[in-house]
Design a protein that fits this description.
about 270 residues, alpha+beta, PUA domain-like, nine-stranded mixed sheet, two-stranded antiparallel ribbon, about 25% strand, binds zinc ion
Length: about 270
């Protein structure tokens, strides 16, 4: 498969082979106006040298991320299962120090918020093998877990994205999103409750004729630690409109669920 423009990355199929020269040229020349690979500012592939990770467009307008892995480049990197559905990928460190604000790490931490695909390539001689598109499913202190891309997760509002958000706060917000994507617990929450929105009391099925509800993790973000354990009792059920509004308040005003709940209850009265 020959990549002529950045956009071609989005139509790769699993196990497609791309030569190292082709991908190298695409990355370098996507930045060069007038070159044969140039396809506009929004298709520039950025990188910091020698890190094996690239991103298409800068946050918050990132369209995708490229990861090229070589065995052993970071000790813990590699597939976490035999069926190759998840991949352990280390944050980039300089002198053994990880900065979450470094762009190469930011594009990983921010993925659950913006849901752009992460294209994973593994090395094979003079080629890269495309292993598929992935999402960040877990964020730990030193690495992320990439899982096969499922674009069905709650789309987060990007317009209110606060570029100045403190990175620790942003990491906690991502931890919050992760909790809401813990499918085993979310399933348990949904099985054990009535599907009524906690804020507007909508029963989706009655209004729209189809059963639907979302689980919101209501634990105050300020109390999160990296060892935060996710529990069924920490969730409430919300309709998609109220859920979206809650997340916008969380991000915009930094307030917690109980307070947002009270504000929205009054508005819905
Ligand atoms: Zn609602
Ligand atoms: Zn939520």
């Amino acid at each position: 498969m020959e990549l002529k423009f950045t956009e071609n990355l989005f139509s790769l199929n699993q196990d497609d082979v791309v030569t190292k020269k082709n991908l190298y040229d695409l990355i370098q020349f996507s930045k060069v106006k007038g070159s044969e690979y140039w396809a506009g500012d929004s298709n520039i592939i950025n990188n910091t040298p020698q890190q094996g990770i690239n991103w298409i467009g800068d946050l918050p307008d990132t369209k995708g991320v490229l990861i090229k892995t070589r065995p052993g480049s970071y000790v813990e990197d590699g597939w976490s299962d035999d069926s190759h559905n998840s991949y352990h990928y280390s944050f980039k460190a300089r002198n053994n120090v990880i900065s979450y604000t470094e762009k190469a790490n930011q594009v990983l931490i921010s993925q659950p918020q913006h849901l752009y695909p992460i294209f994973l390539f593994t090395e094979s001689g003079s080629d890269w093998i495309f292993r598929g598109a992935f999402s960040v499913s877990t964020i730990e202190d030193t690495y992320v877990v990439l899982s096969r891309y499922l674009p069905n997760l709650i789309a987060e509002p990007t317009d209110e994205y606060n570029k100045n958000q403190h990175s620790e706060g942003s990491k906690k917000y991502v931890t919050h999103l992760m909790a809401e994507r813990n499918s085993a617990i979310v399933k348990e929450v949904k099985q054990s409750r009535e599907w009524v929105c906690d804020i507007c009391n909508t029963i989706f099925k009655d209004t729209y004729g189809v059963k639907y509800i979302e689980a919101h993790h209501k634990i105050p973000i300020s109390t999160y630690s990296s060892q935060h354990e996710v529990k069924v009792d920490d969730f409430t059920l919300l309709c998609p409109n109220c859920h979206k509004a809650v997340h916008i308040y969380m991000r915009k005003d930094g307030i917690e669920y109980d307070e947002i709940h009270n504000i929205l209850k009054v508005k819905n009265a």
